Amino acid sequence: RRNRLSGVSVGGASEVRVTPQPGRLTADYVLRGVKVHVEALPLRNVSDTSEAEGACLYKISTTPPVPAVVDCGGMATMTVWNRAAWLRETAVGGPHNHIENQSSIALLQDTDVPRVVAFRASGPLTTINAAGKSHVRANFSEGQGWVLAAFARDASRAATLAGTDVQAGEKSTEDFYSGLLGRIGLATPEPV
Do residues 64 and 97 touch, judged by C-beta distance below 8 A? Predict the structure, then answer.
């Protein structure tokens, strides 16, 4: 996944701050004078199954609001080892990526990976083919939106997971971590 703003890659960002929080990861940075806020939130209500499937919600917003795109592709994220080089690449996608657009969902398959990723977004999805690599692009003309990436062993199941109610999924995850943190306490012998 890569964010782009008027053709500028995230690699040119300044004032980068990444903050892990219970159940989500946030990143804030400045790109050509525009503040960008990104969140990644694994949705608990459709993840952690015995079938090793799930979904993650990515949210982006810009201040001031300017058109932004999020490029999604490549299947190296499914590989645990040796991701560092892939994460530093500026080209998105993979040579074996096959993308099929189905109405509001784009399905990404790779011959080397036994999973299908289904993308749904609050903005239009398009397929981009460049330098022998294909990827999905989510377009946010108002500078804010979300991408839901769901993965499963087959296309039908991935598409079903991508149809998850985003607001309900986000609330379910927030409630889970709020409840978890509410049960944790720390007592010290000295007043703080």
Answer: no
